[in-house]
Amino acid sequence: MADKVTLAFVGCGGIAGAHREGLKKLWEAGLRDFEVIATCDIDRKRAERMADQIAEFQGRRPTAYQQVEDMLETERALQAVDICSVHRNHHTLAIPCFEGGKHVTIEKPLALTLKAGRLMLAAAERAGTVFQVAENYRRDPAHRAIHWAVRQGDIGEIRMIFWLDVGERLWYWTWREHRMEAGGGWVLDGGVHFADLFRYHVGEVDTVAARTHAFHPYRYGKPETLEDPIPVDVEDTVMATLTFDNGAMGQWTSVSAAPGTRFSQRVLYGELGSIDFSDGLKTRSGREETIPQMVERFRKAIGDDGWEQLFPRGVTDTIATELWEFIQAVQGKAQVEITGVEGYKDEAICMALYESSWLNGSTVAVADVEAGALANYQRDLDEALGL
Ligand SMILES: NC(=O)c1ccc[n+]([C@@H]2O[C@H](COP(=O)([O-])OP(=O)(O)OC[C@H]3O[C@@H](n4cnc5c(N)ncnc54)[C@H](O)[C@@H]3O)[C@@H](O)[C@H]2O)c1
Questions:
Q1: How far is the CA of 11 from the centre of ligand 1 (A)?
Q2: What is the C-alpha to C-alpha distance for residues 7 and 37, in angstroms, rounded to an integer?
Q3: Is 3.40.50.720 the CATH classification of the domain at 5-137+314-342?
Q4: pLDDT tens-digit map of 57-83
Q5: What spacing in Å lies between the alpha carbon of 366 and ligand 1's midpoint?
Q6: pLDDT band for position 288 (cuts 50, 70, 90)
Q7: Considering the entire predicted model, what is its pTM?
């Protein structure tokens, strides 16, 4: 027990289940340098159920709590907290943890607004503890391989990225449909993953020009028949143009208000060819490779040791490897890849889209949004948070 990192889960809903499964995969692979000693959710039943489920693989049952303050007060041996709560209270949960000297990993996006995020960064800095934002997409073997292929010049200098997802969703997705709870719609919730991938594959985003819109005033309890309408107030459509520091350009469209034809195209272009995130590599000279073939080539290139670094004991589940990195960082054996600051930069890109749209699509510098100099869209959210 002495060398095990003591962990608590705060927020025991949907994604916390994937975190529990991630820990279970680590456990089953023999990576057992952790013990979950507490679970916490305002919904007591969820905290209790999570404690039961963790006990099934870990042996010892964590103690379940309803309030984070009680948990921090009682669990004196607690070292680290995994926060999987809703966006609105990311900062109000993380800051007391930092003040109690805990290491924190928190689900994306960092916070409801960048101002709330800056308070978290300051608290983490004062605590001097590990701060990880759970940004798992880039940990997928496919994204690791694409990143490597791009860096070794397979498609030459990057010219552009297209990230286009068009379709319709009519069902109601609880707190995610309400701006005051979620901070925004898919631009922020899913978009922060995409922003992280843009930074990972292409580079830092310099400017954005975007229009967001809410075509649907409702989602539906019975989406098949458009019955049981429930008012919603987040955007369901964004169309944006991005420029990158390295001269690349990007087009980002996410639409969940387009009935009929659906399509998704996510492609990187360089001076020599393209990498389609689904279909793989194609070059002007006729070279072709699927994503699984690229992953295999990457695996051979980095060798067993390199693979083991990224996927310890062959575990490829993105949440499992992210949690393992966090545990190792708490033990002083590793650095986290997506720190609070990196998570903040990811979120600033999403907020830049909203800020641009607020200014009727004017081009905005991501640096201004990051610095807090441009925050019109976020102002009423900050006020609601009392910031
Ligand atoms: N990485 C990913 O791919 C991914 C996927 C889904 C969700 N997420 C993120 O995970 C977070 C949670 O999303 P979810 O889908 O699990 O939501 P959810 O609604 O299923 O679960 C959130 C849980 O937090 C609890 N909670 C709310 N306030 C609390 C408080 N003050 N103290 C303790 N618990 C509290 C709720 O009761 C609920 O059980 C969000 O930040 C979301 O963006 C990430």
A1: 6
A2: 6
A3: yes
A4: 999 999 999 999 999 999 999 999 999
A5: 27
A6: very high
A7: 0.97
